[in-house]
Design goal:
With about 290 residues, this protein is an alpha+beta fold. It is built from six helices and nine strands, in the order H-E-E-E-E-H-E-E-E-E-H-H-H-H-E. It has one domain.
Length: about 290
């Protein structure tokens, strides 16, 4: 006599069928995929926010350092300051300006005795990184501090030629800076060395080393604009693309200075830069009054 096997468990409940298990696993897999996508999206947002904060901090660091240096700048007729506005057609310059001046701010010195309170300060962009030079010399370095032999005058084509190995003391202070533009806001109604009269909202005509701007006569403020791209985004572009991006951002004009809206518009529409990178370009500007 045959008997029908009872498929129910001892408590009266049956187990899951194979089809039910497959459906449950499929639903679980979908949920896992969705969860991973959400986690990745949140991670991308957090990473981008972190990179933007890092750019903000770098720009703030640069502006704080510049503010300290310019606040203590030596503004005298017998002490030079040099502003090089390198134009878009300057080979190898990547359209970045340079600045050299003397200040009573801090600087590096290998001389532990007989130091003067005067430091040579310079800012430049090299290989898409912003560098600062701060070099203090001693009172016994006569060629450095004696105006009569013109050693305090910067030679535009070789600004550091009178300072030995000074160029060895440049150090990177903002690795995300790929573009720096400098211009000088002039005092309205004053007359420049070339005979031109400064109107309201007039800026110095900064060109290249063949026509540099020397000194601080009639200068009310130093205006600096920075373009930054975070290190993660830089991995997506080539060195040449980054140079082209720097060339895209135009020089300051004598009437209006640096146009930040123009910079922003051109950066956001740069055709040779991937859209994901364009959205991460950060632009900043700050003015630094010059003490009289």
């Amino acid at each position: 006599m045959t008997t029908e096997r009872d498929t129910r468990s001892e408590d009266g409940c049956r187990g899951f069928t194979l089809l039910e298990m497959v459906v449950a696993l499929a639903v679980l897999a979908v949920l896992v995929v969705l969860l991973v996508q959400v986690i990745n999206a949140v991670s991308d947002v957090v990473n981008k926010a972190s990179e933007r904060v890092q750019c903000d901090l770098e720009a703030q660091t640069v502006f704080d350092r510049l503010s300290d240096d310019i606040a203590q700048i030596i503004n005298r007729p017998d002490v030079d300051a040099l502003f090089l506005g390198l134009s878009t057609n300057s080979p190898g310059a990547d359209n970045n300006d340079q600045i050299y001046f003397y200040t009573q701010g801090s600087g590096f010195s290998t001389n532990t005795t007989n130091q003067s309170p005067v430091s040579l300060i310079a800012y430049q962009v090299n290989n898409a990184h912003l560098q600062r030079l701060g070099l203090t010399r001693g009172w016994d370095d006569l060629s450095y501090v004696t105006p009569s032999n013109a050693q305090t005058t910067f030679v535009a084509t070789a600004p550091l030629q009178n300072f030995g190995t000074a160029s060895n003391y440049f150090h990177t202070i903002a690795p995300s800076v790929f573009r720096m533009e400098i211009t000088l806001l002039m005092k309205a109604g004053t007359i420049n060395a070339d005979g031109t009269t400064n109107a309201m909202n007039s800026y110095a005509n900064l060109t290249n080393s063949t026509n540099p701007w020397h000194g601080l006569t009639n200068v009310m403020a130093v205006v600096v604009a920075l373009g930054l791209l975070d290190q993660t985004s830089r991995q997506i572009v080539t060195t040449q693309q980054l140079k082209d991006l720097a060339l895209t951002l135009p020089d300051a004009s004598t009437n209006g200075g640096i146009s930040i809206p123009t910079w922003t518009s051109l950066a956001m529409t740069a055709t040779n830069i991937p859209p994901a990178v364009r959205s991460e370009i950060r632009i900043y500007q700050r003015s630094f009054p010059v003490k009289r």
